[in-house]
Amino acid sequence: PTIAPGSKDSSGGRKDACVSAVQFNLAIASPDVKVTGVADDSTVKAIRSFQSFFKQTVDGTLTPAQVKSIA
User: Fold this and answer.
1) Which of 3, 16, 30, 50 is the most buried (most CB within 10 A)?
2) Is residue 59 within 8 Å of residue 51, measured between CB atoms?
3) DSSP H helical segments within the chain, as ranges?
4) Which pLDDT value is given to residue 15?
């Protein structure tokens, strides 16, 4: 799935917790990220840092391939 600012985990259980999985892993490098299941401001900031570090388009939205590489 794509994760954009404001995206939320769906209510389908653990398999649908993509935002939380991304937040959990981003929090390792960005302690401001909290696992909330919502792509909030601190999550988007960490996503932008990730994109910049890996020389990708910095737009704060994760493509499915980027989600897979983080989650």
Assistant:
1) 3
2) yes
3) 18-29, 41-53, 64-70
4) 53
